[in-house]
Amino acid sequence: MTIQQLNYFLAIVKYEKFTTTASELFISQSSLSKQILSLERELGVKLFARNTRNIVLTPIGMELVTYAQKIVSEYEKLRLHINEYKEQQAECIAIGAIPVLSQYGIMDIIIDFEKHYPNMKINITETDTASILQMLDESKIDIGIIRTEPSQYEKYVVTPICDDELVLLVGSHHHFADRKVVTLEETVDEEFLLFNSDPLILKYFARLFKNAGISPKIQYSNVRLTTIRSLIKQDMVVTLIMKRLAEYYNDPLLHIVMLDNHPTRSLSLITRKDDLSCSSGILVKHLADCQHTTKK
Asked: What H or E segment, with its residue span, contains residue 60?
């Protein structure tokens, strides 16, 4: 006796015809009949009187209805309980990331990871670098995804997954548009529009300008990149942006100009030392391996 057979039996009781029942269950009538005959052989009794136009329950068949309903109901309760238990047992990996996961293909890798490890659930919070480091220190996240430089954040385990360099983004009619490379010193008279959504990245920009010995005009804004790109197209401003982000949007009215010193930063996974769960370790390795494969 199987739960499926009992479900078939109860469906026939509901619809009163084999043909209607088979149609509602999306199975053939012969398959339905075989399952009911198998159930009757196992029980050693006839459940239906088949000598009438409509199916009629035998007396023992009527008694089986009550038992079958209880068994199926308890089975569904058991299934629900087990699913709830499995969800409670599923490990949750909390990630804090700067908002570039889609542009670097990381979101696709995480989705693929969840398909291969259905018992590992991943929660992602996108925010600025300082907030990510704070959440990591307070154990609110397991993994951070931020930009790093060599020998930076030595109190953590840093796993670089993708190198990228900073470039100058200008409009197609800008006087730098026909240049492949410029020095940062040459931009002294430019008007920059930079994101101010991440204080630590702004400090990085300030250090670059200081090392170049220049103090250009800088506007800081929280506007979307789409707005900044529109202003650049009108040659009103220029901006500094990571090369892969600029390439991701692939706008023919914008021109990427390399900086001669090729300032490079890594997009890295960052975790606490000696405090990495097995599941988080698997995800870190998966992300690193996939990114290295992509670069090849």
From this structure: helix 59-89
**What does the block give as tokens for 246?**
């600029």
pLDDT tens-digit readout, 107-121 = 999 999 988 888 888
Helix (H, G, I), strand (E, B) or coil at 168: strand
Both tokens of 79, joined, read: 């299934």
- Written as six digits, the tokens of 191 are 């008007």
d(CA 12, CA 32): 9
pLDDT band for position 51 (50/70/90)?
A: low
Q: How far from the centroid of its chain's Cα atoms is residue 20's Cα?
A: 44
Domains of the chain: 3-84 (1.10.10.10), 93-282 (3.40.190.290)
Name 176's Cβ contacts closer than 8 Å, sequence gap at least 6.
168, 170, 182, 186, 238, 255, 257
Q: Is the pTM value of this prediction over 0.90?
A: no
* Strand residues in 82-184 grouped as ranges (E): 91-97, 120-126, 143-148, 156-171, 181-182
- Residues 243, 235: Cα–Cα separation, whole Å: 19
Q: Per-residue pLDDT averaged across 130-155, rounded? A: 91
**Chain segment 119-131, per-residue pLDDT in tens:** 888 999 999 999 9
What 3-state DSSP class applies to 18?
A: helix
Least confident interval from 4-18, 150-164, 215-229:
215-229
For 19, the token pair is 């043909």
